[in-house]
Amino acid sequence: MIPLPRLWADCSLQKQVSYAALLDSVISDPQLLNRDESVLFSQYYKLRAVLQRYREIEKKGGWNSIDLDPKLKTYKPGDTAKAILQIRERLFITGDLKQNNKSNQYDHELVEAIKKYQHRNGYNPDTLISPKHIKEMNIPIGVRIKQIIVNIERCRWISPEFAKAKEFIVVNIPSFKLDLVRDGKNEFESSVIVGKNVTKTVIFSGKLSYIVFSPYWNLPVSIINKEVKPGMAKHKNYLETNNMEWNNGQVRQKPGKNNSLGLIKFIFPNADNIYMHDTPAKSIFADESRAFSHGCIRVEKPRDLAVEILKDDPNWTPEKINAAMHAGKESTYPLKSKIPVYIGYFTTWVDDRGEIDFYNDIYGLDERLAKLLIDEK
Fold first, then answer.
1. Please, are residues 145 and 129 in contact by the beta-carbon 8 Å criterion?
2. Is 296 part of the annotated catalytic residue set?
3. pLDDT 10s digits, 248-286
4. Any idea where the domains of the chain sit in the sequence?
């Protein structure tokens, strides 16, 4: 496992510099933060390009605040309001809307721009404009720029070896998303569920080494003590009802469709015992915010991920993968080539089209890092 700087332990990432100086230096000098990597994670350069674009918007005055009617529930297509005109102007500035016809009516062109904006900001795209969307649009340009700078610094935490890998997987915690990248192209993506605030998913890198089909779930001691033992005291058939059994003094849940790990899990050995797995609880993937787990990463499309990982392995076909997942008997397959995995924390991310996405700082890490980087006195 490649060690990474932990924010709470590293208070010397760089000497604080003024906000304006930091902006100008990051844009002009890729070695600003006194690092000596010969190769930087490609996201670094994408964020730098967007930073320059947002800096130009800031120099022109940024964007004005949109009036938020305290009685507003939603704006729907066809509605007219002064705020609609302001929203149109706001989305035109950031490029979500290509032309500004200066209409105060929520027309078809604005509908498409709203969907694009929602997608870029971690919302489920639809045609309704709600107060939460307007509050997001009212975040000042300076705050967004600081957010970009913070994530540029995070790109420097990633090993150059990882950045040069032919194939790798990135799980971005704030976006609740997994991407498999091969030869510089995004070949696969899936929504994920990450750890709750009290059981945060750890930021680290490792190597995907094994795939486990029809896995057992070995229950943590805390769950055994808090749930299983009291359940057994009340119901003598508790273990059987929940498809569980004792195993060498521990409790495990047997393989099957109702297993808490689902039908497959992906192992990249690490000290925190974090891994990716299926889940029988599919409905929560529809939620916009998906921080529900005890730290491990639940994958919405685990079967498809396995197919993508094993597609060049002659031992596996999609049919064999399906059969192994539903065998009802645990089996482990070591990968012929281990795949680098990075569990990261990026509240901004630039896609292959150069569009920047912003995500909620679900663990509250952005402001702390910004204070280490930027002197705003």
1. no
2. yes
3. 889 999 999 999 999 999 999 998 889 999 999 999 999
4. 82-137, 161-344
